Amino acid sequence: MVSSANYNLAIGQNLGSSVGAAGVVKLNEHKQKEEKPAVIEPAKIKFHKIKQSDKHQVYGAYPEDYIVKIELETSSKDIQKSMELMNRYKLITFKLSNKKTYIYLKDCYMIDNLVAPQRYKGAGTKAVQNLLDRSLSDKDTEGRIVVMAEIIDGQTSPAGFFYKLGFRFIDKSQNEIMDKWLIKNIETEAPKITGMMYLPKQNISKLVMYNSFL
Q1: In this predicted model, what pLDDT tens digit does every residue of 185-204 receive, in sequence order?
Q2: Could you name the CATH architecture of 44-55+107-209?
């Protein structure tokens, strides 16, 4: 009877240990599943390099470190055409300059397209930061990046996204609108503004550090 009782006790202890161990394993597995970070798919970014030798002519208030100004002789054909227009529309005649200034972009990277599988997850920001690294490593571009902000789906504008990263419009009046939007500090869609944007040299550090402490 004693040995039988001991045997039963031993079984009970073994069963208790087994169940307890299994319970711990299951809890740990469940905890690991909960702590596993969500997988964020990388954004897809398309870009190309603009070379100064391509003579990409631009207009607007670009900073001096983004452009090169070249003064060329005005052709006689252009002068004759201007004279004809003034005579046709009876414009006030004035002495035409025999030189014309052309403004071209310096070497820089232009973002053609940026698509993030998930919004507000940082994938788009990371893609732009990687492009900045490439531009900073390139002795020709020295961190210069431009992008044309366009409304693709007819509803949303990338202006707010790029503006927060430090990009600015070449049109100063558009930057004023974006500043007012940021000052409001409310969760509203960015103004549907389109136009050429560039990354100012003084905002490079802002893009580098963006979301680094989140």
Answers
A1: 666 788 889 999 999 999 99
A2: 3-Layer(aba) Sandwich (3.40)
